[in-house]
């Protein structure tokens, strides 16, 4: 029976773990396991007997996609152990801020002069649906980078397994694992090693940029693979811009043997370009990366809950990221964009009717609407439909979002929330206000409105305009919605009905409370056919410009979701699918595919 004395815990910076035991023969042994990148350099001269053969085994295992560990041991003397134990216990019981550094320093002193025993390999299968998910994300124009702690050969093998790397793709490999570098490391001259390593990484990055630039016309895609040691130098201030330029020009990037700090630094580097970054991980090593990214997605699983607790979203499996982005991401972008644009529209429509009335009344200072009309406009009569839009609207179904990943490009290119789009909705609001005010005033003024022959007064004009505003903005919402539920119907038509209920109830109060609204609907507006005809005319005229615009856009300048909706109704989904089965598309290629799709649709209509 072995007696366990101490455990030197694994950390991402140490990349190894050790235990100290006493065997039945009373010998003290240090047993250590860890990554090959840190284990081989800790071997003693007489402990390297199987190093060459073990390296071959590790490379063979890594090429097969297995995760490897190197195992070594060391015999300790009693005196050496007692001296080290005092230092270790002192560091372990320290209450200062540098406790972890003291423990690591003590471990570093004992984990040396090891004797190599061999290596192990463990199969770590990809989760179900990972290759298909990454392929869909690439079709959507999303650039995927893999930041992993695995060995380079393992990372490359996984890259092929998950469709991140392809056979026709040229690889740019930046590494410091070469015989010359191994010889320098054995000499132990740290300054020379650093200088030569920096020069080597700089040279490899420049060669990679040269390859990419020379192949731009031939449209050859590249995959960049870089190891952890090289990444340390590539993230240096002198090289980070050059490295980033190279990485952006490559279709896929794999950073292997990456530490948690490196993962966070790479994420920060990409984030600094102004692009939106999403990080996804399942272990404690990914916490820094998840917190550094704009959006962090944690996967709950066997590696604990640290990643989940540090993330913005939590999912059970990697493949669920496809639905999170391509379905809910697309829907949410569209809903929020439409909701904000609609807020601009409905408030400008309401506000500019007041403005035109003030100009018409020579800026007398008396508003066109009762105070309670103005207070209730955004609270009761127009708020619920826009909330329903932001919660329920869907331009296409979830199945079609997954089938046509290029829909996601509408959000990447910010088509629905660009300044032209916002200004268009604002212009529509101003135009609606002009139509409502001038059509209403010209329709009911100078007419015998009441039963006794009296003409329209200030109170009736305010109610007529307000009714047209409420009808117009709610019917505009009905025209903008793609996916109706009973809740949306209830909110839209209920908001209009609520206006008339409010007018009846509020108008029935004594004049001291209802002021200008006193029985204005019951006695003046409701009995008059002119009021209802004017409301109908104004609402139809207000909605007509938007209706014509949407008809023209759908017919001659359709957006991608318009094409999908139209061809789905025509029963030609297979045809559109053949146009969109692409891989690793960038925005320029996405635009080409959309142009092809539009040309195909025009040919069908001729």
Automatic annotation (TrEMBL):
User: Is Metal-binding set as a keyword in this record?
Assistant: yes
Q: Does the keyword Translocase apply?
A: yes
Where, by residue number, does the polypeptide cross the bilayer?
343-360, 372-392, 422-440, 490-509, 529-549
Membrane topology recorded in Swiss-Prot or TrEMBL = Multi-pass membrane protein
What Gene Ontology cellular component terms go with this record?
A: membrane
The UniProt similarity line reads: Belongs to the cation transport ATPase (P-type) (TC 3.A.3) family. Type IV subfamily.
UniProt protein name: Phospholipid-transporting ATPase
From what organism does this protein derive?
Answer: Citrus sinensis
**In the record, what lineage is assigned to the organism producing the protein?**
Eukaryota, Viridiplantae, Streptophyta, Embryophyta, Tracheophyta
């Amino acid at each position: 029976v072995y007696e366990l004395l101490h455990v030197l815990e694994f950390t991402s910076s140490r990349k190894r773990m050790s235990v100290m035991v006493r065997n039945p023969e009373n010998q003290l042994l240090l047993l250590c396991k860890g990554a090959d990148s840190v284990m081989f350099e800790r071997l003693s001269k007489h402990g390297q007997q199987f190093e060459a053969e073990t390296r071959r085994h590790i490379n063979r295992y890594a090429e097969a996609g297995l995760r490897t560990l190197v195992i070594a041991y060391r015999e300790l003397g009693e005196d050496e152990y007692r001296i080290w134990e005092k230092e270790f216990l002192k560091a372990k019981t320290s209450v200062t801020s540098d406790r972890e550094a003291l423990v690591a320093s003590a471990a570093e002193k004992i984990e040396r002069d090891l004797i190599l025993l061999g290596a192990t390999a463990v199969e770590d299968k990809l989760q179900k649906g990972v290759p298909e998910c990454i392929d869909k994300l690439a079709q959507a124009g999303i650039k995927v980078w893999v930041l992993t702690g695995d060995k380079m050969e393992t990372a490359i093998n996984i890259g092929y397994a998950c469709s991140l790397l392809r056979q026709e793709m040229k690889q740019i490999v930046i590494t410091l694992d070469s015989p010359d570098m191994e010889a320098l490391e054995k000499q132990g001259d740290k300054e020379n090693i650093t200088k030569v390593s920096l020069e080597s990484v700089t040279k490899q990055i420049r060669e990679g940029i040269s390859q990419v630039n020379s192949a731009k016309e031939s449209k050859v895609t590249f995959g960049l693979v870089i190891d952890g040691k090289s990444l340390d130098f590539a993230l240096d201030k002198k090289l980070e811009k050059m490295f980033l330029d190279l990485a952006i020009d490559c279709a896929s990037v794999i950073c292997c043997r990456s530490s948690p700090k490196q993962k966070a630094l790479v994420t920060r580097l990409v984030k600094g370009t102004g692009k939106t970054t999403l990080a996804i991980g399942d272990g404690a090593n990914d916490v820094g990366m998840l917190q550094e990214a704009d959006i962090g997605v944690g996967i709950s699983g066997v590696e604990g809950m640290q990643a989940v607790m540090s993330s913005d979203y939590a999912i059970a499996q990697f493949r669920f990221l496809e639905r999170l982005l391509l379905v809910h991401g697309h829907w949410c972008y569209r809903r929020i964009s439409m909701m904000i644009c609609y807020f601009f529209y409905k408030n400008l429509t309401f506000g500019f009717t007041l403005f035109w009335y003030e100009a018409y009344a020579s800026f007398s200072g008396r508003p066109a609407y009762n105070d309670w009309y103005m207070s209730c406009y955004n609270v009761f009569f127009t708020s619920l439909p826009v909330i329903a839009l932001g919660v329920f609207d869907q331009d296409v179904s979830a199945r079609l979002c997954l089938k046509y990943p290029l829909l996601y490009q509408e959000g990447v290119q910010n088509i629905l929330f660009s300044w032209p789009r916002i200004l268009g909705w604002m212009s529509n609001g101003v135009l609606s206000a002009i139509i409502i005010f001038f059509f209403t005033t010209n329709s009911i003024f100078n007419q015998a409105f009441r039963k006794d022959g009296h003409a329209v007064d200030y109170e009736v004009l305010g109610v007529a305009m307000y009714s047209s505003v409420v009808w117009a903005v709610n019917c505009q919402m009905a025209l903008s919605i793609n996916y109706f539920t009973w809740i949306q119907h209830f909110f839209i038509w209920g908001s209009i009905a609520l206006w008339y209920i409010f007018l009846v109830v509020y108008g029935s109060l004594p004049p001291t409370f209802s002021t200008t609204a006193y029985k204005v609907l019951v006695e003046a507006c409701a009995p008059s056919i002119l009021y209802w005809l004017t409301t109908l005319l104004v609402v139809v005229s207000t909605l007509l410009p938007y209706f014509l615009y949407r008809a023209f856009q759908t017919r001659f300048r359709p957006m991608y979701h318009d094409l999908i909706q139209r061809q789905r109704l025509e029963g030609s989904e297979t045809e559109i699918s053949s146009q969109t089965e692409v891989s690793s598309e960038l925005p320029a290629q996405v635009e080409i595919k959309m142009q092809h799709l539009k040309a195909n649709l025009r040919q069908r209509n001729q």
